[in-house]
């Protein structure tokens, strides 16, 4: 299964109305990033930030696995780095980064999510270097 958000008119990555329809009012995001609001407003803030940093961002759904009240989604995001991110000024580089999410669904809406993004891979593509702490 491959679907790209830029080609989906009703993607939560493109429609705030759909975010409110898909996420329960008390949606729990795990882990909640620093300086991000709880609930669907936090999701909207995150997506707005990603759209700002990567204006041409596309998010491709690579896999969806459903079992009981859980859905696991593996995505790949691609875009051009056009604004500061995590202290790294815009590089103009094309990047791609992976994410995996597990969602718990109740009453047709997502009530809880756990996610993992490959920020080390993303930052490496932007030119960041890492060293072991001494």
TL;DR?
The chain has helices at 16-22, 39-53, 119-125; strands spanning 3-4, 23-30, 58-67, 70-80, 94-106, 109-117. It is of the alpha+beta class. It is globular.
List keywords for this structure.
six-stranded mixed sheet; 22% helix; 40% strand; globular; alpha+beta
Walk me through this protein's architecture.
The protein is built from three helices and six strands; from the N terminus they run E-H-E-H-E-E-E-E-H. The protein is an alpha+beta fold. The longest helix is centred in the middle third of the chain and has 15 residues, at 39-53. Mean pLDDT is 87; it is low at 4-10.
Sequence-ordered SSE layout with sheet pairings:
Layout: E1 3-4, H1 16-22, E2 23-30, H2 39-53, E3 58-67, E4 70-80, E5 94-106, E6 109-117, H3 119-125
Give the class from helix and strand content and strand pairing.
Answer: alpha+beta
Radius of gyration: 15 Å
Work out the helicity level: 10-25%
Outline, from the CA principal axes?
A: globular
Q: How are helices and strands ordered from N to C?
A: EHEHEEEEH
* % residues in beta strands: 35-45%
N-to-C CA distance:
44 Å
